[in-house]
Hints:
- 2% of the residues lie in helices and 32% in strands.
- With 317 residues, it is mainly beta.
- The strands form seven sheets. A four-stranded antiparallel β-sheet has the order 3-2-1-4, with no helix packed on it. It has a four-stranded antiparallel β-sheet with strand order 6-7-8-9, with no helix packed on it. Strands 11-12-13-14 form a four-stranded antiparallel β-sheet, with no helix packed on it.
- The protein contains one helix and 24 strands.
- It has one helix at residues 70-74; strands at 2-6, 14-18, 22-26, 60-65, 81-82, 88-89, 98-101, 107-110, 117-121, 133-134, 139-142, 154-159, 164-169, 184-186, 198-199, 205-207, 210-213, 216-217, 230-234, 240-244, 265-267, 272-276, 298-303, 309-314.
- The chain has a single domain (75-314), classed as Quinoprotein alcohol dehydrogenase-like superfamily (Methanol Dehydrogenase, Chain A, 8 Propeller).
Amino acid sequence: xxxxxxxxxxxxxxxxxxxxxxxxxxxxxxxxxxxxxxxxxxxxxxxxxxxxxxxxxxxxxxxxxxxxxxxxxxxxxxxxxxxxxxxxxxxxxxxxxxxxxxxxxxxxxxxxxxxxxxxxxxxxxxxxxxxxxxxxxxxxxxxxxxxxxxxxxxxxxxxxxxxxxxxxxxxxxxxxxxxxxxxxxxxxxxxxxxxxxxxxxxxxxxxxxxxxxxxxxxxxxxxxxxxxxxxxxxxxxxxxxxxxxxxxxxxxxxxxxxxxxxxxxxxxxxxxxxxxxxxxxxxxxxxxxxxxxxxxxxxxxxxxxxxxxxxxxxxxx
Length: 317
């Protein structure tokens, strides 16, 4: 990770954190930061920050760099990684750290001004299977059911390569003991973890006491892949709330996937969760999956609290 600072910094200086997306990190009381993967819960990827613009961007210079240490730790396994994480800037009450995840799901919190590491969390994932390692980000939420001043009132949520959903304290990276078992919930069923075919890479969505996660599925080699079930949990306890199978109307088709591997977004005011579903499997050859394959290749709006379908728009049939 690298940070850039204006060559001639104004009285209130800005940092730009790059990993590889650009994240504006203001000093206290300055312009807005970047609290969510997509900038806001709706995923607009827009910032009202105006201090750095076309007139002064050429004056930026390196302020600090940070190296995670993954290269030294994992060696040859780095060939199976892809660095895709977008950092988020936590609010002052949560420590005001710049937080990102490495391809091996290690979560690292940095001082945005100096680049010094404040804490790190390693979920110690199962490295089995052939899927590449990647982590696109983590999600922050204030948990109002936790009393002020207690651990895990400010939380980060992480979905991992080996299909675990973690809740950790945003101030120090310690697992939230009251969430699931020791801070984590398994995202697979009685069949157990089958390394390599299904994983998680995008940050979960957290809103109004609900945390939702999709999955990444190898869906281009055969028709009978796992279904792309979206799962929702109580953000405080980790108790399951609902599941949504995008191919729920095709139980006997033998086709699978239509998973949601990309980031989701939320309209909290109207209680809507938006899913960008992928293709049914095999995704490049439709002979084995006749019909419309609802709700694959669609934007799907669900009720955030119940998982019930509100509406959908299918881009490709």
